[in-house]
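[Q] Does anyone have a clean C-alpha coordinate version of this?
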Amino acid sequence: MEFLMTLLAPWLNFWTDPWFWQFPITTIAISTGTFVVFAIPWTWVAWKDPKSLRKYKIQDKEFEFDKFFWPSIGRLFTNNLAMLALLVVAWPLIKLTGIHLGEMPPWYIIVAQIIFFIFMDDFLYYWMHRTFHENKWLLKNVHSVHHRIRNTCGINGNYMHWIEFSATASLMLLGPVLISAHLYVVWIWVVIRQFEAVDGHAGYDIPWNPAHWLPVYEGPVYHDFHHAKFKGNYAGFLPYLDRFMGNTYVADYLSYLKSKKTGLSPLAIAQALNAKRSAAKQAAVEKALADKKQEGNSCSVK
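[A] Here you go.
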Protein backbone atom coordinates (compact mmCIF):
# COMPACT_ATOMS: atom_id res chain seq x y z
CA MET A 1 0.00 0.00 0.00
CA GLU A 2 2.82 2.37 0.87
CA PHE A 3 4.51 1.53 -2.43
CA LEU A 4 1.30 2.30 -4.31
CA MET A 5 0.89 5.63 -2.56
CA THR A 6 4.49 6.52 -3.40
CA LEU A 7 3.88 5.57 -7.03
CA LEU A 8 0.74 7.70 -7.22
CA ALA A 9 2.17 10.61 -5.22
CA PRO A 10 2.80 12.89 -8.25
CA TRP A 11 -0.92 12.70 -9.13
CA LEU A 12 -2.39 13.02 -5.63
CA ASN A 13 -4.26 16.30 -5.26
CA PHE A 14 -2.88 17.64 -8.54
CA TRP A 15 -5.95 19.86 -8.81
CA THR A 16 -4.85 21.78 -5.73
CA ASP A 17 -1.65 22.92 -7.45
CA PRO A 18 -2.14 26.49 -8.79
CA TRP A 19 0.28 25.73 -11.63
CA PHE A 20 -2.04 23.02 -12.94
CA TRP A 21 -4.73 25.64 -13.45
CA GLN A 22 -2.37 28.35 -14.71
CA PHE A 23 -0.53 26.28 -17.32
CA PRO A 24 -2.41 23.28 -18.79
CA ILE A 25 -5.97 24.26 -17.92
CA THR A 26 -5.75 27.94 -18.89
CA THR A 27 -3.81 27.05 -22.03
CA ILE A 28 -6.56 24.63 -23.12
CA ALA A 29 -9.18 27.28 -22.37
CA ILE A 30 -7.34 29.92 -24.42
CA SER A 31 -6.75 27.46 -27.24
CA THR A 32 -10.39 26.38 -27.44
CA GLY A 33 -11.76 29.88 -26.91
CA THR A 34 -9.63 31.53 -29.58
CA PHE A 35 -10.40 28.74 -32.03
CA VAL A 36 -14.13 29.31 -31.56
CA VAL A 37 -13.79 33.10 -31.80
CA PHE A 38 -11.79 32.84 -35.04
CA ALA A 39 -14.07 30.12 -36.45
CA ILE A 40 -17.41 31.88 -35.89
CA PRO A 41 -17.17 34.51 -38.67
CA TRP A 42 -15.78 32.11 -41.30
CA THR A 43 -18.34 29.45 -40.38
CA TRP A 44 -21.17 31.99 -40.60
CA VAL A 45 -19.95 33.07 -44.05
CA ALA A 46 -19.85 29.44 -45.22
CA TRP A 47 -23.36 28.87 -43.85
CA LYS A 48 -24.84 31.94 -45.52
CA ASP A 49 -22.66 31.72 -48.65
CA PRO A 50 -23.28 35.41 -49.58
CA LYS A 51 -23.24 36.22 -53.29
CA SER A 52 -20.81 39.08 -52.73
CA LEU A 53 -18.14 36.64 -51.55
CA ARG A 54 -18.74 33.70 -53.89
CA LYS A 55 -16.10 34.86 -56.34
CA TYR A 56 -13.55 34.29 -53.56
CA LYS A 57 -14.52 30.66 -52.94
CA ILE A 58 -11.56 28.36 -53.51
CA GLN A 59 -13.72 25.42 -54.60
CA ASP A 60 -16.64 25.65 -56.98
CA LYS A 61 -18.98 23.60 -54.80
CA GLU A 62 -21.20 23.99 -51.76
CA PHE A 63 -19.73 23.79 -48.27
CA GLU A 64 -20.59 20.65 -46.30
CA PHE A 65 -22.00 22.79 -43.51
CA ASP A 66 -25.19 20.92 -42.66
CA LYS A 67 -23.43 17.56 -42.61
CA PHE A 68 -20.40 18.47 -40.49
CA PHE A 69 -21.27 21.48 -38.31
CA TRP A 70 -22.53 19.58 -35.25
CA PRO A 71 -20.01 16.74 -35.66
CA SER A 72 -17.29 19.41 -35.67
CA ILE A 73 -18.65 20.86 -32.42
CA GLY A 74 -18.73 17.36 -30.95
CA ARG A 75 -15.14 16.64 -32.00
CA LEU A 76 -14.00 19.94 -30.53
CA PHE A 77 -15.52 18.95 -27.18
CA THR A 78 -14.36 15.32 -27.07
CA ASN A 79 -10.87 16.09 -28.40
CA ASN A 80 -10.28 18.66 -25.69
CA LEU A 81 -11.52 16.21 -23.06
CA ALA A 82 -9.05 13.63 -24.39
CA MET A 83 -6.27 16.21 -24.34
CA LEU A 84 -7.16 17.15 -20.77
CA ALA A 85 -6.95 13.51 -19.72
CA LEU A 86 -3.52 13.17 -21.32
CA LEU A 87 -2.33 16.33 -19.57
CA VAL A 88 -3.40 14.86 -16.23
CA VAL A 89 -1.51 11.65 -17.01
CA ALA A 90 1.56 13.68 -18.04
CA TRP A 91 1.27 16.12 -15.13
CA PRO A 92 4.44 14.95 -13.33
CA LEU A 93 6.43 15.62 -16.52
CA ILE A 94 4.66 18.91 -17.20
CA LYS A 95 5.71 20.16 -13.77
CA LEU A 96 9.35 19.55 -14.74
CA THR A 97 9.23 21.79 -17.83
CA GLY A 98 10.80 25.22 -17.73
CA ILE A 99 7.62 27.09 -18.69
CA HIS A 100 7.43 29.90 -16.15
CA LEU A 101 5.69 33.06 -14.94
CA GLY A 102 8.88 34.98 -14.18
CA GLU A 103 10.04 38.16 -15.85
CA MET A 104 8.75 38.70 -19.38
CA PRO A 105 11.47 38.81 -22.06
CA PRO A 106 11.92 41.94 -24.24
CA TRP A 107 9.56 42.30 -27.20
CA TYR A 108 12.21 41.39 -29.77
CA ILE A 109 12.96 38.16 -27.91
CA ILE A 110 9.24 37.36 -27.91
CA VAL A 111 9.09 37.95 -31.68
CA ALA A 112 12.15 35.74 -32.22
CA GLN A 113 10.65 32.99 -30.08
CA ILE A 114 7.32 33.10 -31.94
CA ILE A 115 9.16 32.86 -35.28
CA PHE A 116 11.10 29.89 -33.91
CA PHE A 117 7.87 28.22 -32.78
CA ILE A 118 6.30 28.73 -36.21
CA PHE A 119 9.23 27.25 -38.14
CA MET A 120 9.78 24.38 -35.75
CA ASP A 121 6.11 23.47 -35.45
CA ASP A 122 5.66 23.65 -39.22
CA PHE A 123 8.67 21.43 -39.92
CA LEU A 124 7.55 18.80 -37.43
CA TYR A 125 3.92 19.06 -38.54
CA TYR A 126 4.94 18.52 -42.17
CA TRP A 127 6.54 15.18 -41.33
CA MET A 128 3.81 14.12 -38.93
CA HIS A 129 1.12 14.98 -41.48
CA ARG A 130 2.98 13.26 -44.29
CA THR A 131 3.40 10.16 -42.09
CA PHE A 132 -0.35 10.16 -41.45
CA HIS A 133 -0.78 9.84 -45.22
CA GLU A 134 2.02 7.40 -46.01
CA ASN A 135 1.34 5.00 -43.14
CA LYS A 136 -1.69 2.95 -44.19
CA TRP A 137 -2.85 2.18 -40.65
CA LEU A 138 -2.65 5.80 -39.50
CA LEU A 139 -4.37 6.99 -42.66
CA LYS A 140 -7.24 4.51 -42.36
CA ASN A 141 -7.78 4.62 -38.61
CA VAL A 142 -6.77 8.16 -37.63
CA HIS A 143 -6.23 10.76 -40.35
CA SER A 144 -9.14 9.68 -42.54
CA VAL A 145 -11.46 11.31 -39.99
CA HIS A 146 -10.16 14.77 -40.87
CA HIS A 147 -10.42 14.01 -44.59
CA ARG A 148 -14.10 13.17 -44.49
CA ILE A 149 -14.59 16.86 -45.29
CA ARG A 150 -13.43 17.82 -48.78
CA ASN A 151 -14.66 21.43 -48.84
CA THR A 152 -13.99 22.85 -45.38
CA CYS A 153 -15.13 25.89 -43.42
CA GLY A 154 -13.69 27.46 -40.27
CA ILE A 155 -15.27 25.22 -37.63
CA ASN A 156 -13.89 22.11 -39.36
CA GLY A 157 -10.32 23.00 -38.37
CA ASN A 158 -10.40 20.76 -35.28
CA TYR A 159 -12.57 18.02 -36.77
CA MET A 160 -10.13 15.14 -36.39
CA HIS A 161 -9.39 11.95 -34.47
CA TRP A 162 -8.38 12.53 -30.85
CA ILE A 163 -4.96 10.96 -31.52
CA GLU A 164 -4.25 13.45 -34.29
CA PHE A 165 -5.59 16.31 -32.19
CA SER A 166 -3.37 15.36 -29.25
CA ALA A 167 -0.32 14.90 -31.47
CA THR A 168 -0.87 18.29 -33.13
CA ALA A 169 -1.29 20.00 -29.75
CA SER A 170 1.85 18.31 -28.43
CA LEU A 171 3.89 19.57 -31.39
CA MET A 172 2.56 23.06 -30.72
CA LEU A 173 3.91 22.98 -27.15
CA LEU A 174 7.24 21.36 -27.96
CA GLY A 175 8.98 24.59 -28.98
CA PRO A 176 7.98 26.51 -25.83
CA VAL A 177 9.05 23.58 -23.66
CA LEU A 178 12.46 23.34 -25.36
CA ILE A 179 13.34 26.97 -24.68
CA SER A 180 11.51 27.25 -21.34
CA ALA A 181 9.29 30.07 -22.61
CA HIS A 182 7.30 32.47 -20.49
CA LEU A 183 3.71 31.29 -20.09
CA TYR A 184 2.35 34.49 -21.66
CA VAL A 185 4.50 33.88 -24.74
CA VAL A 186 3.08 30.36 -24.91
CA TRP A 187 -0.41 31.83 -24.91
CA ILE A 188 0.47 34.28 -27.70
CA TRP A 189 1.78 31.37 -29.76
CA VAL A 190 -1.33 29.28 -29.07
CA VAL A 191 -3.55 32.12 -30.34
CA ILE A 192 -1.48 32.39 -33.54
CA ARG A 193 -1.59 28.62 -34.06
CA GLN A 194 -5.36 28.51 -33.66
CA PHE A 195 -5.72 31.42 -36.07
CA GLU A 196 -3.84 29.32 -38.63
CA ALA A 197 -5.99 26.25 -37.86
CA VAL A 198 -9.15 28.19 -38.65
CA ASP A 199 -7.75 30.19 -41.55
CA GLY A 200 -6.43 27.09 -43.29
CA HIS A 201 -9.97 25.70 -43.41
CA ALA A 202 -11.82 28.95 -44.18
CA GLY A 203 -12.63 28.05 -47.80
CA TYR A 204 -12.29 31.61 -49.12
CA ASP A 205 -9.28 33.35 -50.63
CA ILE A 206 -10.19 36.94 -49.75
CA PRO A 207 -7.60 39.61 -50.66
CA TRP A 208 -8.03 41.55 -47.40
CA ASN A 209 -7.63 38.48 -45.21
CA PRO A 210 -5.11 39.48 -42.48
CA ALA A 211 -3.34 36.14 -43.03
CA HIS A 212 -1.81 37.64 -46.18
CA TRP A 213 0.22 39.98 -43.96
CA LEU A 214 2.25 37.01 -42.75
CA PRO A 215 5.40 36.49 -44.85
CA VAL A 216 5.47 33.31 -46.98
CA TYR A 217 2.06 32.12 -45.73
CA GLU A 218 -0.40 31.58 -48.59
CA GLY A 219 -3.57 31.67 -46.52
CA PRO A 220 -6.43 29.16 -46.86
CA VAL A 221 -5.57 28.20 -50.45
CA TYR A 222 -2.60 26.00 -49.55
CA HIS A 223 -4.40 23.66 -47.15
CA ASP A 224 -7.69 23.81 -49.05
CA PHE A 225 -6.06 22.05 -52.00
CA HIS A 226 -4.80 19.38 -49.62
CA HIS A 227 -8.39 18.61 -48.61
CA ALA A 228 -9.61 18.75 -52.21
CA LYS A 229 -6.88 16.44 -53.54
CA PHE A 230 -6.10 14.41 -50.40
CA LYS A 231 -2.33 14.16 -51.02
CA GLY A 232 0.36 16.86 -51.09
CA ASN A 233 0.64 20.29 -49.40
CA TYR A 234 1.52 18.68 -46.08
CA ALA A 235 2.82 21.69 -44.11
CA GLY A 236 0.80 24.01 -41.87
CA PHE A 237 1.98 27.60 -42.15
CA LEU A 238 4.81 27.54 -44.68
CA PRO A 239 4.39 26.00 -48.14
CA TYR A 240 8.13 26.13 -48.91
CA LEU A 241 8.63 22.76 -47.19
CA ASP A 242 6.93 20.84 -50.00
CA ARG A 243 9.51 22.21 -52.43
CA PHE A 244 12.48 20.93 -50.45
CA MET A 245 11.03 17.69 -49.11
CA GLY A 246 10.42 15.91 -52.40
CA ASN A 247 8.25 18.37 -54.33
CA THR A 248 5.05 17.26 -52.63
CA TYR A 249 2.95 20.16 -53.87
CA VAL A 250 -0.56 19.57 -55.18
CA ALA A 251 -0.28 20.28 -58.92
CA ASP A 252 -3.57 22.20 -59.04
CA TYR A 253 -2.36 24.42 -56.20
CA LEU A 254 0.61 25.54 -58.30
CA SER A 255 -1.72 26.13 -61.26
CA TYR A 256 -3.96 28.19 -58.98
CA LEU A 257 -1.07 30.45 -57.94
CA LYS A 258 -0.10 31.03 -61.58
CA SER A 259 -3.67 31.80 -62.60
CA LYS A 260 -4.13 34.15 -59.66
CA LYS A 261 -1.24 36.29 -60.90
CA THR A 262 -3.20 36.90 -64.12
CA GLY A 263 -6.00 38.56 -62.15
CA LEU A 264 -8.56 35.75 -62.18
CA SER A 265 -10.80 35.42 -59.14
CA PRO A 266 -10.56 32.26 -57.00
CA LEU A 267 -13.95 31.03 -58.25
CA ALA A 268 -12.98 31.62 -61.89
CA ILE A 269 -9.79 29.64 -61.33
CA ALA A 270 -11.74 26.82 -59.69
CA GLN A 271 -14.16 26.70 -62.61
CA ALA A 272 -11.28 26.66 -65.10
CA LEU A 273 -9.56 23.82 -63.22
CA ASN A 274 -12.83 21.87 -63.11
CA ALA A 275 -13.30 22.36 -66.85
CA LYS A 276 -9.73 21.22 -67.48
CA ARG A 277 -10.23 18.10 -65.35
CA SER A 278 -13.55 17.32 -67.07
CA ALA A 279 -11.94 17.67 -70.50
CA ALA A 280 -9.05 15.40 -69.47
CA LYS A 281 -11.48 12.83 -68.06
CA GLN A 282 -13.58 12.93 -71.23
CA ALA A 283 -10.48 12.55 -73.38
CA ALA A 284 -9.40 9.54 -71.32
CA VAL A 285 -12.83 7.93 -71.74
CA GLU A 286 -12.82 8.54 -75.49
CA LYS A 287 -9.31 7.10 -75.77
CA ALA A 288 -10.33 4.02 -73.82
CA LEU A 289 -13.34 3.51 -76.09
CA ALA A 290 -11.20 4.02 -79.19
CA ASP A 291 -8.61 1.53 -77.94
CA LYS A 292 -11.34 -0.98 -77.16
CA LYS A 293 -12.85 -0.50 -80.60
CA GLN A 294 -9.47 -0.90 -82.26
CA GLU A 295 -8.85 -4.06 -80.25
CA GLY A 296 -12.22 -5.42 -81.39
CA ASN A 297 -11.41 -4.64 -85.02
CA SER A 298 -8.06 -6.42 -84.66
CA CYS A 299 -9.80 -9.51 -83.30
CA SER A 300 -12.27 -9.41 -86.24
CA VAL A 301 -9.44 -9.28 -88.79
CA LYS A 302 -7.79 -12.31 -87.18
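[Q] Thanks! Anything notable?
[A] The two ends are 88 Å apart (CA to CA).
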